[in-house]
Amino acid sequence: MRTILILATLFFTINSFSQLEAANWYFGEAAGLNFNSGIPIPHLDGQLNSVEGSASISDPNGSLLFYTNGNTIWNANHEIMPNGEGIKGSSSGSQTALIVPNPVNNTIYYVFTTDDALLADLGQNNGFNYTVIDISLNNGRGGVLEKNLPLLPIGSEKVSGILNFNENYFWVVTHFRDRFYSYKVDENGVDTNPIISILGPSITDFRNGRGSLKLSPDGTKLAMSYLIQEPKYDSSLFIFDFDATTGIVSNPVEALSHRRAYYGLEFSSNSKMLYASGVNYNRDNNLENIKVIQYNLESANFFSEGKVVLDFQNNTGFFVAGALQIGIDKRIYHSIPNARLSVIREPNKDARLTNSEKFTVDLGGREGRFGLPPYIQSFFETIINIENYCLGDTTTFTPDGNNNITDISWNFGDPDSGALNFSNNIIGEHIFSKAGIYKVVINVEYSNGNPRQFIEYVDIKPAPNVLTEVELVQCDIDGIDDGITSFNLEEAIPIFDNGIENLDVFFFDTEANAIMNQNELSPLGYRNDAADNIIYAKVSTGLECFSLIEITLITQPMSNLRLYDTLYICDGRFRDNMIIANLSRVIEQLSEDFGDTEISLYINEDDALFELNQLKLEDYSFSASNIPELFFRIEEDHDCAFIGKVELVVVESPDHEETKLVYLCDGLANLNAPDGFDDYLWNFGIMQQEITVKEPGIYDVVFSTGTCVYIQTVEVLPEIGIEVENVIVQDFRRNNQVSVILGINQSGENTTFSIDGGLNFQESNVFNNILPGLYDLVVDNGCSIYEEEIIVGAMPNFFTPNNDGFNDMWTLSNSSYFPDYKVSIYDRYGKLITSFRDGQSGWDGRYQNKNMPADDYWYHLELIDGRDIKGFFALKR
């Protein structure tokens, strides 16, 4: 069946696909990019929020038409299109949607939406569907004519498309289980009867449906990845042949997984390189780094020769490696959750020359996620080889093979060049008027197909403005004064670079080799063959446009100082058999000898010679049992002057009070300097760690090890006696307590307390559970003694008035110490039974000459110090 769209006033034209249909991207968390200038500029007006998939489309001039997250469609004003909700895609699908224009009617677009593997695993299948949009509706803002027209009841998350430009129709390809479905889209709409290619792989578990499908821009290849998640991580990565005439997929070639779960895919614009993103996992099925791999499809064994171009730490444990998508600038972009995208700037080149950069494409504060919008891959095809990007050179544009081209016209996008801005030669040649990015438009006519328009962005750069002649002076450490030594040629870069960052620098032994880019020198360890030898550096900002620098290699004679000195670090820290030292102390001591020079430190002599692995100065740590020798390099104006070695002695900084107070005790004070040092000197000439003084005063001691010198000041104060501010007796309780409160100037250090006249001492100033009685309090601080007599009062807890001579009378204990007291006794009902005073004998247990029953009774004790004490006791028979 073929769906045919008929409109009453429909106007058909032959569409001219200019590649600018992919000029505007919307993806992630309201992120977007505008490629119309040739440089991706952040869009800050997007409305979609997508974990993975999205899609967008622009007109042939690069103006945004609409975009979608697979569920909702927004127009160019970022408004939801009429009937644009409830689309059966998914924002968590790898490639949730693909937008395909009608090849003849330039107002009609088809949005193909894919299934969601997670929903399908739950039995909630969206299937593979398409939605029809007429962009002429709603005053040119577009509207949805029909939506969710079914193609497959169940599908995968994969879709890609390609133009058959000979016959002017598109193929839209998806995959499910073990077969490919190729749907033709021509002027009549979508042919719902697909071309089916059954050749695997067979993926039946919906949970393993993530991954990508991409057709090559020239329409000859198809790549597909499946991220296998269950029952453990695995991967399926294939490349196939694709016939853009028949829609048939054939000739599968499978990649070894290399314990890598593949996800994103993309072809270079010349269709010769395939890139795949994948998360590595180890033998224990634990996730590791995310990598982007390049496969050169012109190699016979391309899958076994993959080369890493981007490598990311995977600290958050992502198992999805992120989408790859080519832009109209022919660069390939990569997205994982971040406020920046990574980029492969020159994907048509070998991995070493791709100029790949991590997280350099700014999204204007918005966040990318795991997906990027896919497009018809024909939008990105390159049929031109471009050479010479240097300002002032003739840039040549050579068609790749004949390709049945009958006519070609060039607009170099350089109006300042006048009539030279245009050409009709098969090979385009142009000298650009100034540095910058130019949009070159190429209109091509073929003998066997429709006309096509191609766009190439050309970045014309000036030669780097660097010094053309420099000297590189190296130290000679082999002991032979012959002008021969080993160099790290990269040390010349900061001499000639004029502060330009990100230069590509290569070294050659002759100027001819530098120009021809052959016989490149290894910069590290290069050994000159004669004094004042000359080599050449080829310097560029992208390999194409370069400057040549003549470097004269000069050897500094007699520059090896060998073992120079033993230096002390006086503020080391010792932790668990490790020493942590501040190496700036070494620099400070060397500066006393070498003055205003550049001094750097290294762990071995080769590192010092080649300026590799320079040691950080702060918190340098090493084993306490293996204190290293350090090598230093002295430079004057980037010239190596000396290389030498120092031995270290690290002294732990003493944990001491710089000023402390000591009191005389019994007329003496013992003064002790910190332990562990070689020499001690007190300010009156005594050279020992410990001294005894008899007079108050200020005493300074200098203690040292090697050149590490420290000082401590001890102030000796007169002896002070013990000052007791108060003794608090909490008595007349079942658990009596005595607390000794020292004066405000008493530290309590070395002070002990006794309540039995000094027979037993304790460190606490509080005595608990004290029986009633008379006590001799003693406070001793080692130098002075304080004594006081205290009384602890109490009332008996019970008495037994049975005339046996024991506890027959209830009265105040130690009553002689509490003159003029008064005691009142009450029964449990509050009735006064009796009272007695100081001098009276107490209560005998009778009331009105009758024995009171055994029971609890209450008392009220009144003392002349104003205390009212209440309690109870028991009468027992």
From TrEMBL:
It comes from the Bacteria. CDD domains: PKD. Gene3D superfamilies: Immunoglobulins. It comes from Croceitalea rosinachiae. This is T9SS type B sorting domain-containing protein. Pfam families: CHU_C. InterPro entries: Ig-like_fold, PKD_dom, PKD_dom_sf, T9SS_type_B. Keywords: Signal. SUPFAM superfamilies: DPP6 N-terminal domain-like, PKD domain. Residues 1-22 form the signal peptide. Residues 394-450 form the PKD domain.
